What we know:
Aspartate Aminotransferase, domain 2, seven-stranded mixed beta sheet
Amino acid sequence: MTPLEYDRAFIWHPYASLKDPPPVRLVTSANGVNLTLDDGRELVDAVSSWWCVAHGHNHPAIVEAIRRQSERLCHVMFGGFTHEPAVELAQRLAGIAPKGLNRVFFADSGSISVEVACKMAIQYHVSLGHPERNRLVALKGAYHGDTSLCMALSDPDGMHTLFKGIMTRHFFAEKPDAPFPGSAVAPVRTAPEQPSVFIASLQRIFDEHPGEIAAVICEPVFQAANAMNFYSPDCLAEMRRVCDENGALLIFDEIAAGFHRTGPLWAHQSKTSGNRATTPDIMTVGKALTGGHITLAAAIASERVAETISSGRPSAFMHGPTYMANPLACAAALASLELFAHSDYAAKVVRIERAFRDGLAPLRGLANVKDVRVLGAAAVVEVERLPAHRDIERVIDGHGVWLRPFSNYIYAMPPLVSDEGTISRIVEALSDLARSEPGPAPADSEFHE
């Protein structure tokens, strides 16, 4: 049995059936923006292996950092011990986080860091004598991960509806429909609702559930895996105002949008119409934190949040992953942050954004295209229905570009090091797929990832 035959028979892949699994390709190596397959072909990784490979695959600086660290210490429990990579990484994260956020909790993955941030918010209110404040407000269109609490905070009509029976009930404000200024490359529908609709729904939740809400959580500016929605940073400022007026915390999930994906280092640093960025009480980071070389995430809290929890009963924050602050992952993250610090990614992202805008504009008005939008190094073609699987495979193989459409979205989020030629190939692949015939309508209960 070949590796691919064994894989098809016995190994589950994300959002896939074992009875009729989608085709997979055997990757033997990767370098820069390219994945090399077992038959020698190369594919451009146009989705950065789910948005994390910011510096390209197998970046020599990150690989070398992992190698050096492996010769000294691969892992040690973080309960009762610490180590230099963790201390240095915490210092570096506090130095680039929004002002006032300097208390770092390391986690194994993005989903876990979101769970940690939400537990911090709830324990914060317990420490203040308000255990009844144990519900959160999320946004329709949100995605925060696949663990239980993260599912409960993701779009209630999204990919996790099957598991509603085990989810704690939280509250959902309307999806922000005020677009990020200039992100709509080729709008073909009517103008979106104004941000007051979103804010009114958020305020209504607080009015109807006084004293119940611990925090509001959102993906700032860029709702990724459930909506591919770019929205105005003015909505963040309004969230901050409503939270402050109601004694709730504000959590920003920067896992997908952070590290220059939307332009600035952090998506929430996009200026509002009042010309100032909004600061959260807790922020989660992951994905590109290590350049996509090894899993690591973190929740970064304000001094106020940390001191309140540490002064309560219990004074210990009640969480502790086995692989918390793994030394190899911390070493990789330090090398990644060094690359972010000394590479002009903001300028690179401007060039990528311009190329996406110019290249995808001709898709305006195609029969199957609902919208085309671009922000930073993220491009989205929203369609009425995805093309059939055979057309997706044809485009991938014909253009040598790896794409992973889902739901009604054909999108690209390439490595930030992608050059002009790479972006041109990605644009051609996206355009080819957008012009393909729509595939069959999915079953009502089926989520196509």
